[in-house]
């Protein structure tokens, strides 16, 4: 596998473009796509959109940004589905960047992007939660995967109109298959989508698989460096960081410290925002308990502690006091009647902890309650 494909460097071959497609044209996807599209350097970015497809096709993406001012991003192409993109003019997608919500209990997005993936494709996952990479690794065992974690405040205020409020940070790291595994503890599976796959024996590592992992990490790290260069040198985003596989997973778990505490609690508290929750003494104590549980468990699960520069639970709570008016995404989904990202933010971490002999009791309680609430509401809808 030493000959594993590497994407061309921008400008190194004027006759060979770098072709990028974003799967998911929400606020995060459109913002980062707009900073990566540079035809003058032969980097061409296309979008796969759903509800806002018509608006993007007709007018492009209108961005109102705190960092770069107002501008319009006109992608190389806009497609209504991955299948349509696979039948378009581009025959080789160098980067397939997935920025959709991760809902493995609804569908297997690794199957969704299958028409786009070829031997030379690098899959980039910019999604919340932990364990999001595993379905892609299972389906595409020889393709490099880059895992991404964002720190950004952005929203789609109307179809095709994106507002970036604060921050642009993006952490990138390669992924082999060693950072986490959740499927062997999942209790259900439909056998067709692969979304929540049935338990299967863990294979014994051999020299071939270890060699492949080393190659995937090496090539994945090269892709991280190239993407970081594109976004920094051409897109003027100056807080792109590249980390090792395990360090990137620690960053995922650190973001989970925030998401797994605030998101579920906002729904269960009756719709309170972040600042309102931390100002309530009992809710603040509850939030701290969830965050501390993750803070203590992650090093046991990943084998390494959080870096000293990452903010701890108390510092996060203190800074949240100023976040007036902010509603977590899970609350927005609940209020809109949409599915919540329960599995990647709560279910996967709980299962992964159990697999490693670490019980996440507070998170398990949040998961059980919200999973039930969602099922009851969907059952009521089905009876209408």
SSE blueprint and pairings:
Blueprint: E1 18-23, H1 27-34, E2 43-48, H2 53-59, E3 61-65, E4 69-73, E5 78-79, H3 82-86, E6 95-98, H4 109-112, E7 122-126, H5 134-139, E8 145-158, E9 161-175, H6 207-234, E10 240-242, H7 245-268, H8 274-279, H9 281-302, H10 313-320, H11 329-335, H12 342-355, H13 361-383
Helix pairs in contact: 7-9, 7-11, 7-13, 12-13
Domain Ketopantoate reductase C-terminal: 247-374
Keywords: NADP, Oxidoreductase
Protein name: 2-dehydropantoate 2-reductase
Please explain how this structure is put together.
- Residues 181-204 have low confidence and may be disordered.
- The protein is 42% helix and 17% strand.
- Strands 1, 2, 3, 4, 5, 6, 7, 8, 9 and 10 form a ten-stranded mixed beta sheet that branches.
- It is built from 13 helices and ten strands.
- It is an alpha/beta fold.
- Strand 8 and strand 9 form a beta hairpin.
- The termini are far apart.
- Helix 7 (245-268) packs across helix 11 (329-335) and helix 7 packs across helix 13 (361-383).
- Residues 247-374 form the Ketopantoate reductase C-terminal domain.
- This is 2-dehydropantoate 2-reductase.
- Residues 177-186 have a biased composition (Polar residues).
């Amino acid at each position: 596998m030493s000959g594993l494909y590497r994407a061309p460097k921008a400008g190194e071959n004027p006759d060979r473009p770098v072709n990028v497609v974003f799967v998911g044209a929400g606020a995060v996807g459109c913002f980062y796509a707009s900073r990566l599209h540079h035809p003058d350097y032969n980097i061409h970015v296309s979008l796969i959109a759903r509800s806002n497809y018509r608006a993007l096709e007709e007018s492009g993406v209108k961005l109102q940004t705190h960092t770069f001012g107002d501008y319009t991003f006109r992608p190389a192409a806009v497609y209504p589905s991955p299948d349509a993109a696979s039948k378009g003019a581009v025959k080789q997608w160098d980067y397939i960047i997935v920025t959709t919500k991760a809902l493995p209990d609804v569908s297997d997005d690794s199957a969704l992007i299958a028409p786009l993936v070829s031997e030379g494709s690098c899959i980039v996952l910019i999604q919340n939660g932990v364990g999001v990479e595993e379905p892609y690794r299972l389906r595409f065992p020889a393709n490099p995967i880059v895992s991404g974690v964002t720190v950004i405040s952005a929203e789609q205020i109307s179809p095709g109109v994106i507002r970036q409020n604060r921050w642009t940070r993006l952490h990138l790291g390669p992924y082999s298959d060693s950072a986490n595994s959740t499927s062997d503890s999942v209790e259900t599976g439909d056998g067709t989508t692969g979304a929540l796959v049935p338990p299967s024996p863990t294979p014994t590592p051999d020299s071939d698989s270890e060699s492949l992992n080393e190659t995937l990490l090496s090539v994945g790290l090269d892709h991280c460096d190239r993407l970081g260069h594109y976004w920094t040198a051409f897109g003027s985003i100056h807080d792109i960081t590249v980390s090792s596989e395990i360090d990137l997973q620690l960053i995922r778990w650190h973001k989970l410290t925030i998401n797994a505490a605030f998101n579920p609690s906002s729904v269960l508290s009756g719709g309170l925002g972040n600042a309102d929750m931390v100002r309530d003494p009992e809710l603040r104590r509850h939030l701290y308990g969830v965050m501390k549980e993750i803070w203590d468990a992650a090093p046991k699960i990943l084998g390494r502690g959080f870096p000293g520069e990452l903010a701890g639970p108390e510092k996060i709570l203190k800074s949240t006091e100023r976040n007036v008016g902010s509603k977590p995404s899970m609350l927005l989904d609940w209020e809109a009647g949409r599915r919540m990202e329960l599995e990647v933010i709560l279910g996967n971490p709980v299962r992964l902890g159990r697999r490693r002999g670490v019980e996440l009791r507070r998170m398990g309680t949040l998961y059980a309650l919200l999973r039930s609430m969602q099922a009851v509401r969907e059952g009521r809808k089905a009876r209408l």
